[in-house]
Each structure stands twice: as structure tokens, then as C-alpha cells.
Amino acid sequence: MHKEVQESFLQRIIDKKSKCHPWQGDKLDPGASTGKLKELRSRLDELFDHLLSELDPYQRVLKSISFDGSKVRCAGSEATLKNEGKVIVVGAGKASHQMAQAVHEIFGERATGLINVHKDLGSLPPLGNIRFQPAGHPNPDEGSVKGAREIIQLLEGAGSQDIVFSLISGGGSAMMELPVPGVTLGEYITANEFLNRAGCEIEDWNAVRKHLSQVKGGQLAKRAEGAAKVFNLMVSDVKGDRLDVIASGPFVTDPATFEDAYRVLTNIQQKADALGTDIPPKVIDYIKNSRGVRESETLKESLPNVVNLIVASNSTAIELAAEELASMGIHVPERQRIHDLAGDIEDATIDIYARLAEAIKVNPQKPAAVIAGGEATVDVTRYPGFKDGMSYGGRMQMMAALMLYLIESLPVVGLFAATDCRDGKPPGGMPESAGALVDGTTSKESRAREVDVEYYINACNTYEMHEKLSTQIHKDRFVTNVMDLAIVVYLPLA
What we know:
Elements lengths: L1 H17 L16 H20 L2 H8 E3 L3 E4 L2 E4 L6 E6 L3 H12 L3 E8 L10 E7 L6 H15 L6 E6 L3 H4 L9 H13 L4 H9 L8 H5 L5 E7 L22 H11 L3 H4 L5 H9 L16 E7 L1 H14 L9 E5 L3 H16 L7 E7 L20 H13 L4 E7 L16 E5 L2 H7 L4 H6 L3 H8 L2 E2 L10 E7 L4
Parallel strand pairs: 4-5, 4-7, 5-6, 7-8, 8-9, 10-11
Antiparallel strand pairs: 1-2, 2-3, 11-15, 12-13, 12-15, 13-14
């Protein structure tokens, strides 16, 4: 059986590779010097460190705001901050406390407000007059609700001379939540988990949960209508950088209606038996009875005092990586920058290899690279060795392992990493992995160390594999999530 599993997995890779452009670049001869590949591995590791520094939420916000003591400028807009005016700071997300540090540095004690932060951070001390509320993730908790209530009060109290800074990042959708009247937090969570398990598209999922919330879908923008200006600064962890999807868009217009939400609920109710649970009746009743009630709807038209700005995203990471490679003499044209890495992990890996092979055919004697960003998916049902609780490693560790079959004996180095340096769950007691760094000699090294790469892929246990091969990337810092990043570089031998 083990042999059949291995052949099945390998056959998929072989079939997909056969459809790519034939490799016309250099190949590594047995016994060839690998010094340049080792040097390139080191350079790419340094490049990733540079990206982490440049993507730091504190730095991104600091560079986005200017204040001369009177005028506040941000995102191509400006507002006058008079002596009696307040700087109100609100927000939620995994990186929002770092974003708040920048606002505090710029405005000092004038900046006052509340940020909902990840409960794992514990009780952060106040940053001047900015306080932090621990909140739940991936599901909201009472801390999420408590913080949301206070944030609403702060926004509703904003006057015509006050400026609001909203600091939003990944995880903010759960960390800041206040269900609509009549729906409990438990019922909201049950409905949210049902939508997730039912496989709803993000548009349908958001249509429901925004209409069960008093903060999502631009409803915080409504609360801040009295402020002179609202600067909504976001770190994007979503594909396409859709403003209405980032933390469910608390300051952004929502295209969906209660009618849309009711349609989604009606369509997915048929999955209740299969999922072993049901949508709470109060959730269905609230959505059904709110259809056509205009004052209960989410925000439909942009408010003139709100300015939205994405300060960091996956596209930012791709562009920064391209700049760093250019400084190394490696030009990466737009065709070789994949901004929508998605779908099955095997197909995504093949796409990266195919674009590299295509780039090399123009001039095999020039270095070439492909940069890919996004989030592919691993369907564990395709790997019969997967065992829940015994399979470790994330998407990028899996992609690096798959790439070994495509670049074996080629002068190619690949870095595959999660930008938050947390690629999947590690085994108990082991450090977080950011991803993996491999090259055309890694397959040969795996055989020398008797590491069965095929077995580890089929077991979806690539964490252990990369640990044994010393290809794991460990970083001490946690920045924020702007999805995954892959950088694959061809270095001609001459």
C-alpha cells in the first residue's frame, strides 16, 4: 500500500511537469560545485529578513502619516488638528498594537483610545492613553464584545474637531465583534462556524456575518460620522486586497443586503443534517425580519470623512522582493510575479516551476526568478498518510517539499515562507516554522540522510522532514500576516 501511495503521488507530479515547457537551462553535473547555490540560499534568507523588517506594521504606519503640529496628512488627504481636537485611536487585529505604537510616537499623549488585540498577547500595558483589550481568535469572545462596545462609544463621542485613526489587521473580524440585539455571542459563533464548515464562499459568508454584527460592513463608519476625518489604515491578509473583506470592513461599504444574507441561509440549511448542527433560529428570524429595514442595513454609500489606506499587503511583499532581487542583478518582469497564488498546492507549485522554465528559454545564461504570493490550499484527503494530530507543517513547507521533484539537479533555489513566520502548527514543544529554503541539491541530500521525502509528503508531515534536512526556516520575530510568499531563483552555472 505504501508503494502504491508513493506512485500515485509521484504520478501526479510527473503528469503535470510533462505539460510544462521543457527545461532549457543549466543542470548540475554529479560532483559539481554547489558553492554558488549555498551563497544564494544565504542571500534569499537575508532577503526574507529584509522583507520582514520592511513589512513591520509599525514602520508601515509611521511612513504613512505626517504631522507638523497642525496638519495631519495621510493617504493623500489632510485634516487640521486644532488644539482642542482629540486623536481617537481604535482598531483590532494581530498587528494593530504595533500599528498603535506608530500613532503614539507621532501624536504622543494626544492619542487616546482602545485597540482589541490577540488574547495570546496577554494584558499589554497602556501605550500612553491608548489601552489594549485582549480578545478572541479565531472566534470572538467576551473580550471582543467588551472592546467593541467601548470602541463604539469612543466613535460616537467623536466631534467635528477630532481625528480618528482606525488600525485594522488580520484577525480583526473575530477580535472586534458585537452581535445584533436578540442574537447572543454563542448563537453568532454557531452560525459563523456553520458557514465555515458548509464551505461558503467569502462573499456569502460575509453577507451573513456582517448582517449579524453591529461593527462589520461599515457600521463603525456610521458611528464616526461626527468626526472631522477618519483615517482607516489596514494591513491586508486577503486575496485581491478587497477593503470590504479585510476584518469584514468595519469602515467600508458593504455590497450585500439582508436579502442576500437570507438567500445564503436558505441555501445552506440543507447541509444541517450532514454537519450535525443547525443555524440558530434567532439568527434566521433576525435576518428574515430585517429584510427591507433600511435603518438596520450595513453601510451602502461611502462617507466623505472616511479615508481608506492599505499600508501593507501581499502585493507590497512581492514588490519589495522584486526590488531586492533587482539589486542582485535579477530582473523579475510582471509575467514572473504571481499575485494570485491559490488553488490546489500541487497546481500552484507546478505553476511557479512552469513560469521559471518559460522565463529561462529566452536566455538560459541569465539569472531568472519567479515571485509568487497568496495562499494555496492543501487537500489532506489526497494524501492517505495524513493523520489528524500527527501531521505537522503548513502550506509553504509542503510547497517546498513538492518543488524538490521539479528542481532536482537544477541550479535553482527556492524560498517558501509565511509572512507572519507561522506556517502551520508545529509539534508540541517545537518552534514555529516560517517555511523552508531548498535547492536543486536537496533531493540528493535527502537520500544521503535517508529522509523519505515521499513518505513525509503523503503523511502531510513536512515539518519533521524539513527539520531532518535542515531546510526549515525559523525566525524569532512575528510581524503580521500578508499571506504566503515564494521566491524561486535560477542561477546559471557559467
